[in-house]
Amino acid sequence: MRNNMIELATRAHTLDSREVAEMVGKKHAHLCRDISGYIEAMGQNPKLDSDTFFIERSYTAGTGKQYKRYDITKQGCEMVANKLTGKKGILFTAEYVKRFNEMEQADAAAAARDSYMIEDPIARAQAWIRERQQYNDAITEVEKSKQLIGELKPKADYTDRILNSKSLVSITQIAKDYGMSGKAMNGKLHELGIIYKLGGQWLLYSRYQAKGYTHSETVDITHSDGRADVVMNTKWTQKGRLFLYQHLKKHGILPVIEQNQQPALTIVR
Fold it and tell me: What is the mean pLDDT of the chain?
C-alpha cells in the first residue's frame, strides 16, 4: 500500500494525449505519430529523457482492442505547442497552461489538509509523503533537542566545573590518541552503544545525556550548488573525554601511549 502511494505521488502532472488531440484539433493517431517522432529525435541526445515529456501508455477501446496513448507533461505540451502556428497554437497554449495551473493550485490546497481528507488518490499520496517527512524531521529535531538540553543541565555539577574546559575536542582528535580515524572511533562508540547517528550528527544515547560529555556546535556550510546551510557537529568536553577513556579501557581499548607501556622485568636471583 505504502509503495503504491509513493508511486502515485511521484508521478508528474500530465494530460492524456487523447485530450490534447481534441484540444489541438488533430486525430489522436496523428498526434501519437508526431510524438513518436519527437521521442525518436530526442533519443539521439543522451542528455534528454523523453519520459519527462511523453510517457507511453495504452488504453482499451470499446471494441476491446488496445491502442497506444501518451501521458504528456507540461514540457511535452510546450513541445506540441511549438509545432502549432497561428490562433490554434495560441489557444492550445492558453488552455494547457490553465489546466496545469489548476492542478498545481489543487496541490497547494491539498497540502493544507490532512492526507486522509483528500479524495484524489495522487494528491492524497503526495500529502501523505509530506506528512511523513515532516514527522521524521520533527523526530530528528526532538532527539537533537534532548541532547542539547542534556548538555546544558550539568552546569551546576561540581565535578563538571572542575573538569570543564573551554577547549572542546573533536572525535578525530580523540581518535588520534588511540591510533584510529575519527570514522573508526565513531563506529566503535556506536558498537559499544554510546552514540548513534541521526540527521548526519552523532548523538549520545539517552542514558549518557545530561552528563556534560558533549557539546553541539553549529557550523555554516555551502553546498556544491551554492546553497547556504548549517550542520550540527558533536564535540567532546574534557569530562566526556575522560568518560570515553574509562569506558574504552573496560573493553581493552587503550590509547597508544598506554599500549606502548611494557611491564617491568622482575629479575629472579
Answer: 79
Q: In angstroms, what is the C-alpha Rg of the chain? A: 31
Beta-bridge partners for 67? 59
Q: Tell me how far apart the alpha carbons of residues 235 and 214 are, in angstroms, rounded to a whole number.
A: 6
How far apart are alpha carbons 41 and 54 in whole angstroms? Answer: 13
Q: Are residues 156 and 244 in the same domain?
A: yes
Q: Phi and psi dihedrals of 216, rounded to 5?
A: -90, 130
Is the pLDDT reported for residue 166 higher than 70? no
What residue spans of the chain are helical by DSSP H?
Answer: 2-9, 17-24, 28-42, 74-82, 86-111, 121-152, 158-163, 171-177, 182-191, 238-250, 256-259
Domain coverage including residue 32: 2-112
CB atoms within 10 A of CB 173: 15
End-to-end CA distance of the chain: 81
Place of cell 588511540: 178
Per-residue model confidence as pLDDT tens digits over 184-203: 999 999 999 999 988 788 99
Q: What is the pTM of this model?
A: 0.41
If asked whether residues 103 and 151 sit together in one domain, one would say no
DSSP state of 120: S
Between CA 36 and CA 186 the distance in angstroms is: 54
The residue with cell 515529456 is 53
Q: Are residues 93 and 156 both part of a single domain?
A: no
